[in-house]
Amino acid sequence: MDNTIPAKLPLYLHGSWVQSHSHEWLDVTNPATGEVLTQAPYTTEDELQRAIDSASEAFQNWRETPVPARARLMLRYQELLKQHQEELAEILCEETGKTFEDAKGDIWRGIEVVEQAANIAALTMGETVENVASSIDCYSYLQPLGVCAGITPFNFPAMIPLWMFPMAIASGNTFVLKPSEQDPITPCKLAELFEEAGAPRGVLQVVHGGREQVDFLLEHPDIKTISFVGSVPVGQHIYRTGTDHLKRVQAFAGAKNHMVVMPDANKQAVLNNVVGSSVGAAGQRCMAISVVVLVGEAQQWIPEIRDTMAKVRPGYWKDPKADFGPLISPTARERVLSYIANGKAEGASCLLDGSEVKVDGYPNGNWVGPTLFADVMPEMSIYTDEIFGPVLCLVNTDTLDDAIRLINDCPYGNGTSIFTSSGAAARKYQHEILVGQVGINVPIPVPLPFFSFTGWRASFYGDQHAYGKQAVRFYTETKTITARWFDADIEHAEHPNMTIHLK
């Protein structure tokens, strides 16, 4: 893998890296310094068409590639990703601002999905029933769909592309990837390694751009599926437009994740976990904890939560003492600052204010420090909206039932957790809560890849979720065969040259 970053980021079309002929380019900047790292093109319609045509052509051969050969490609790919994990992490840090350990985690979680894709033979096994009727057998196959597309967000430029194209390609499809225009360098490096692993020409394409390029993919008749991760408004647009054009769509959208703290919880475990899960990655995670619900006497822990949060600070990724990095852009920073101002105006108690935080040596970084609000009410914008920054809200309830009602009234359903030493309380919570991913004494319950990422309600639009068995179902179609053979034909098969005279 070549670690140099070109002045203009190329497209990956038909197995070659080529410069776009676009007249529109977007600066890709380091969010900690403001330095321009490269420029990404707004891919032209002709180039998008070329990507789709190449993927369609490649599909004709790739779909016939034996399943073990597809699995071996994924085995080679995951090994290359492991070998280059630290190099990839450094690039990821430069374009996202993440700390080095966070960046390595981003890549590692993607590697785990590639490892699962290497298990594609077992994941694509069909079903068989003998003698569904007299001398009739029934069996099914999972077959690939064709050209699939993925639209990925800025906050996980390694993990989320690796959620998508390895599972789709291992299932026999080809793939067009449109990464976030804010940090597209890491996805290009992923494609470089995929090529090095032996991916056939045209199986993967990488294009760049914004809404116009996304809409082209959503509306193109040769694109069979759309996978998306991003905000609620964009997710709704992706889902509506894609399904209007008769495509399969999985659109992962926003979140407002709650952690319930019971009075019998391990206090130190709560303090250790609530901070990292709320401000880690500068809060730019769809599974971040943004609300802590303190039940009963757990409300007495507010001063200790404040003191623990006050110890963490943002910083540049090369600083080993930095706990998290900057926000992705000046626009993102201004948005978070507006919510902090709203929270104060709406009457919440601001126990920690990160609005004016500075990082020595990096005056142009998009910094926001850890921010903590208490006395937060459900009608406040800091509660209702996904802030996507290092801002934590504390809400008080008297009982676990009150906490469950509060969370179930929230429109989002991505992730939640409960900290308690009571098995009965934990079971009640996991059973009654209307959220797709539940942690018990685990703050961010992202499933490992042999399960699926299962957000609910306004956090997800579609039917089949990412990675795991559901991803294989999303990227394949089921063909069912009902077969009947007649015993009388056995004699003909044994004596194929025998002449039969019919009177």
From TrEMBL:
<dbReference type="InterPro" id="IPR016162">
    <property type="entry name" value="Ald_DH_N"/>
</dbReference>
<dbReference type="InterPro" id="IPR016163">
    <property type="entry name" value="Ald_DH_C"/>
</dbReference>
<feature type="coiled-coil region">
    <location>
        <begin position="45"/>
        <end position="94"/>
    </location>
</feature>
<keyword id="KW-0175">Coiled coil</keyword>
<protein>
    <recommendedName>
        <fullName>methylmalonate-semialdehyde dehydrogenase (CoA acylating)</fullName>
        <ecNumber>1.2.1.27</ecNumber>
    </recommendedName>
</protein>
<dbReference type="GO" id="GO:0004491">
    <property type="term" value="F:methylmalonate-semialdehyde dehydrogenase (acylating, NAD) activity"/>
</dbReference>
<dbReference type="GO" id="GO:0006210">
    <property type="term" value="P:thymine catabolic process"/>
</dbReference>
<dbReference type="Pfam" id="PF00171">
    <property type="entry name" value="Aldedh"/>
</dbReference>
<dbReference type="InterPro" id="IPR016161">
    <property type="entry name" value="Ald_DH/histidinol_DH"/>
</dbReference>
<keyword id="KW-0560">Oxidoreductase</keyword>
<dbReference type="InterPro" id="IPR016160">
    <property type="entry name" value="Ald_DH_CS_CYS"/>
</dbReference>
<dbReference type="InterPro" id="IPR015590">
    <property type="entry name" value="Aldehyde_DH_dom"/>
</dbReference>
<dbReference type="InterPro" id="IPR010061">
    <property type="entry name" value="MeMal-semiAld_DH"/>
</dbReference>
<feature type="domain" description="Aldehyde dehydrogenase">
    <location>
        <begin position="17"/>
        <end position="481"/>
    </location>
</feature>
<comment type="similarity">
    <text>Belongs to the aldehyde dehydrogenase family.</text>
</comment>
<keyword id="KW-0520">NAD</keyword>
<dbReference type="GO" id="GO:0006574">
    <property type="term" value="P:L-valine catabolic process"/>
</dbReference>
